Amino acid sequence: MATELRPPGPSPAWYKRLPPALQRVAAASDRVTSLPLRPGAALIEAVNELPHVLATARAVEVQVYAQRIADGICSAFRVSKVWVRVAERRPHDQRGELHGLYTPGEAPARDTITLWMFTAKRAQVVAARTFLRTLLHELCHHLDYTHLRLRDSLHTQGFYRRESSLFAALGADRIDSARAVR
After folding, report:
1. Which of 73-77, 98-102, 172-176 has the highest mean pLDDT?
2. How confident is the model at residue 35 (pLDDT cuts 50, 70, 90)?
3. Range of the domain at 162
4. Least crowded by CB within 10 Å, which of 12, 83, 162, 165?
5. Is 20 within a domain?
6. 47 vs 171: CA distance, rounded Å
7. What is the DSSP letter of 18?
8. Strand intervals (E) in the chain
9. Can you spell out the DSSP letters for 42-78?
């Protein structure tokens, strides 16, 4: 199955403020609106188990399942694997809470995704749907570099559509967005 390509629609105003090279990256990003993922049984099982493991509030176990999901997606697209690190309480500032962070690695180090499993203010376990969406969001940054070979990974319309296509391919819409309490 090929990656869906779509002609670009109207660009958001902030695209015009980008340097020309990044405008070209944004346009290339917008042309790819989905990522054709065919998840195997192990990947579906990891997604299905994630809410139960997240409810235990044990970061090490959550990290194991998040890593399985990341490995399954990276393997499906035949790209280098990314290391997933699950930390506890989210950092925050006046702008809000940080949910996840993708950090490209300097060779020979692996790229890293850091996810936080507790909210900053109430120290509650993050809702499973939110946690999974954050993981997929950070994985899309990885796939922008490794699969699509984009020079940069921008939060374009195409980026968010690709993230949603992964979420749908995993059947993740059935995950309850209810929050587990620590």
Report:
1. 73-77
2. very high
3. 38-174
4. 12
5. no
6. 9
7. S
8. 83-89, 92-93, 96-97, 100-103, 112-118
9. HHHHHHHHHHHHHHTT-HHHHHHHHHHHHHHHHHHTT
The residues, any chain, with a CB within 8 Å of residue 86's CB and separated by 6 or more, are 59, 60, 62, 63, 66, 114, 115, 116, 117
Which residue from 140, 130, 132 is spatially nearest to 160, judged by alpha carbons?
Answer: 140
Higher pLDDT residue, 38 or 123? 38
Half-sphere exposure for 138 (CA within 13 Å, toward CB): 28
3-state SS assignment for residue 28: helix
What distance in Å separates the CA atoms of residue 144 and residue 115, rounded to the nearest whole number?
Answer: 19
Structure tokens at 85: 């690190």
Q: Please count the residues of the chain.
A: 182
* pLDDT number for residue 5: 52
Tokens for 139, please give them: 């994985």
CB contact at 8 A, 47 and 172:
yes
- Count of structural domains, the chain: 1
- pLDDT of amino acid 179: 46
Name the pTM for this structure.
Answer: 0.88
